[in-house]
Amino acid sequence: MIEVFTTGGTIDKVYFDANSEFEVGDSLMGELLAESNIRDGFSITGLMRKDSLEMTDEDREAVRAAVSRCAAERVLITHGTDTMVETGRSLLSVTGKTIVLTGAMQPARMRRSDAIFNIGFAWAALRLLPHGVYIAMNGEVFEVGSVRKNLKAQRFERTS
C-alpha cells in the first residue's frame, strides 16, 4: 500500500479569472493516478492546500507527523517546489520508509504541465528506491541531503 499526502503547491493551482491570479485548489491526485491507470494500492490524504512559500515549520511538522504515523512503508507527497527541499529535510528523521516528494512547475490543470510526468516518474521511483527521503522531478531523483532548486533555471540540481 502506498500512502499519498497532498499539501498543495503549483501542481494543485487553479486560475481565477476574476482575480487574474492562481490559488491552490482541490488536489487532482486521484484523477491523475486514474489517468495513469493506477486505480488501487494507495490511499490519498489531503494534509493542507498551501503554496509552499506559505508553509511554516508547524506545517512541516504536521507533514512529518502524518508520515511517521501512517502504516505505509512507501509514501508519496505532492508539494510546492519552492520549499520542497526544506520539507524533505524535516522528514529525514523518519526511518523505515521510502518517501518521495514531487510537484510541478506548471499547474496540473494546464495543458503543458509537467505534473502527470512527474507523478508517474515519482510513483515508479517510490516503488524502486530503498528507504530514504527523495525528490523526484523532471526525470531525475535526488536524495534530499544533496539537492537544491535552481530558481533561475526552474529545475532541481545536485549539490556537492
TrEMBL record:
Residues 2-150 form the L-asparaginase N-terminal domain. Transmembrane segments: none annotated. This is Asparaginase domain-containing protein. The keyword Hydrolase applies. Its EC number is 3.5.1.1. GO terms for molecular function: asparaginase activity. It is an enzyme of class 3 (hydrolase). Pfam families: Asparaginase. It comes from the Bacteria. Keywords: Hydrolase. InterPro entries: Asp/glu_Ase-like_sf (IPR036152), Asparaginase/glutaminase-like (IPR006034), L-asparaginase_N (IPR027474), L-asparaginase_N_sf (IPR037152).
